[in-house]
Specification:
- This protein has 317 residues and is α/β, with parallel strands linked by helices.
- It has three domains: 7-85, Orthogonal Bundle (Arc Repressor Mutant, subunit A); 92-169 and 273-298, 3-Layer(aba) Sandwich (D-Maltodextrin-Binding Protein, domain 2); 171-269, D-Maltodextrin-Binding Protein, domain 2.
- It has eleven helices and twelve strands.
- It has helices at residues 7-19, 22-29, 33-47, 63-87, 101-108, 112-118, 179-182, 206-212, 228-236, 250-255, 286-298, and strands at 52-55, 58-61, 93-99, 122-128, 142-146, 163-167, 171-176, 196-199, 224-225, 241-245, 269-271, 274-279.
Length: 317
């Protein structure tokens, strides 16, 4: 039989793991830092184990602390979600979302009306930028990033439990051009004589695509852009052939402004380009829960949908 534990001590433990310090947890709970410290000591005595390793002013979870944190996070998170679901009926739920510019412009904004219609009560405050947000000032609830940052990037983020980094499915990267240019492109080698639009910040470049098709890449002689939405627009205007994600170009492809001239005749490249990142402390926030469920459904993610990746691979923005 596990020892009876006071709920107040477990709340103090959960607050410390969320905020990353006893002082911040005390402010969160409207208590004194000494009261939080006493609650943690009482909890450690009751459990017969050490939950935090203290080094001056810094603290970190022990293995036992991490195990307990996983369960308290889920327990208090589910309770918070249940309470907010009941109490927020009829009240707006604000989601403060940071997003990679091309994903925001090409994929999210065209769906924003559908999102707001299907998820009633959700309000979205959207900010686009190429910098990853560190969540240090609590200005955003989540970030959709291009290329997952290395875990150490968030080492300064508040809380001890870190971040959730979730892949948003695979994307196909293919040559895209206007229908007029497509008439002259029948095989991969036909691209060698074309103006190839470069996207400077892409993870998959023309050199990668030519290598995948067993061809030596030519010297590029097309326009260069630092954003995918600019490259897509330029290709639709007939300025050359862009190597871009078909997910980001789906509107232009559906409208016939862009086509895939080598569909079925070449080796396209697939990769995981975009990731949803948020502090684990916000995992059960109702606005984020509503958005992530809609996002998983909209992207037709299989299995468990938005599944956390504890240690994401690094990649350029």
């Amino acid at each position: 039989m596990p020892p009876p534990l006071p709920l107040s001590a477990l709340r103090a433990f959960d607050a410390v793991t969320r905020t990353g310090s006893f002082r911040a947890a005390a402010e969160d709970l409207s208590l004194t830092a000494s009261a939080v410290s006493h609650a943690i000591r009482s909890l450690e005595l009751a459990l017969g184990t050490t939950l935090f390793l203290r080094d001056g002013r810094s603290i970190r979870l022990t293995e036992e602390g991490e195990m307990l944190a996983m369960h308290t996070e889920r327990g208090f998170g589910e309770l918070q979600l249940g309470i907010s679901t009941v109490s927020s009926r009829g009240r707006p739920q604000l989601l403060r979302l940071h997003c990679a510019p091309s994903f925001a412009a090409q994929w999210l904004l065209p769906r924003l009306r559908r999102l707001l219609d299907e998820v009633r009560g959700l309000e979205v405050r959207l900010s686009a930028g190429t910098d990853y947000t560190r969540f240090a000032a609590d200005e955003f609830d989540a970030d959709i990033v291009y290329g997952a940052p290395p875990p150490e990037f968030y080492s300064g983020a508040p809380g001890l439990q870190g971040m959730e980094t979730i892949p948003l499915g695979t994307e196909v990267v293919a040559p895209l051009c206007s229908p007029e240019l497509a008439a002259a492109i029948r095989a991969p080698r036909d691209l060698i004589g074309q103006a190839l639009i470069e996207s400077d910040n892409k993870k998959v470049r023309w050199t990668d695509w030519f290598a995948a098709n067993d061809l030596k890449p030519p010297d590029t002689r097309g326009p260069r852009f630092d954003r995918s939405f600019l490259s897509i627009s330029a290709a639709a205007d007939g300025l050359g052939v862009a190597l871009e994600s078909t997910r980001l170009a789906e509107r232009e492809l559906a409208a016939g402004r862009l086509v895939r001239p080598l569909a079925g005749a070449c080796n396209d490249v697939t990769y995981t380009g975009h990731w949803l990142v948020f502090p684990r402390a916000k995992r059960y926030a109702r606005s984020l829960t509503l958005f992530s469920e809609w996002l998983a459904n909209e992207l037709a993610l299989e299995g468990d949908g938005l599944r956390p990746e504890r240690e994401p691979p690094s990649g350029p923005r």
